[in-house]
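Entry type: protein chain
Record version: 2
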Amino acid sequence: YVPRGPIFANHELTLVADVLEDLQQLARRRRAIWLKIDPDITLAYGLPDGVDTDKQPEQLVPAGQSIRAMLEARKWRFSSDQIQFRNTLTLDLSLSEETLLANMNQSTRRKLRQAEKRRVKVRSANSDEDLQTLYRLYRTTGQRQEFTIRPWAYYHDLWRNFLEAGLAHILVAEYEGEILAGVVLFHFGQRVWYFYGMSSNRERDRQPNYALQWHAIRWAKSKGYQIYDWWGAPDTFAEDDPMWGVYRFKEGFGSQVVRTLGAWDYTPLPPLYWLYTQVAPRFMEWLRRRGSS
């Protein structure tokens, strides 16, 4: 698996073809069942044709479209196992704060004002005590939104190592000294990623998450970053998508939808790929049912 790669110096098609050929040869030499790539290549901005296009009309990116056509011609398969988020939303941090506020929807601006009126305070966080509190809130968030999280040791090592490397920034929102919510930002090059968000079940009407995001956006802008990446949007822009509520929150800040290439698999031995991706999961499910009966 090549996470968020390969990374191309440019999207000139002969270069892309050379890189893909090298990867295909590598997969054949290693006798791999498949090789998965997940390059950060934009296919289009805005929503797919026919989905609320008055709000964010689709703008195709020719280079991305050409690379997708090349993958199809070379018999790569769009993967059924998308490890990273395929789509995201971004904010252009070169805009003034006044413009960023004006681009937000009315509900988002109102909730920012509510957070200020209800005395939510935002500060940086880096102590182990803060990180432990954030982990407890992340566990609460996972229970509320029904996603699985890893053990404390994983997040402690991840957050601490990125903080010490100068590649992370953590913010918490408090009310009367109690941490209500937090965000973990990663930053590199010209981009800041909102990677983790967590919040308490208490005092939610104080809108701490809105205060956090506006503070995070202004922090990123003040440090000279150009893009605020919300890291994740629905695969299909429909209300029954599990990420629809998260998307509406992010979109409310005036963010632009970015649709990327996603993960693609190269399969030197297609029968083995079919066995591994289609037959093996069904066999494992049969074993689990048999063991529980």
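Comment: The two ends are 36 Å apart (CA to CA).
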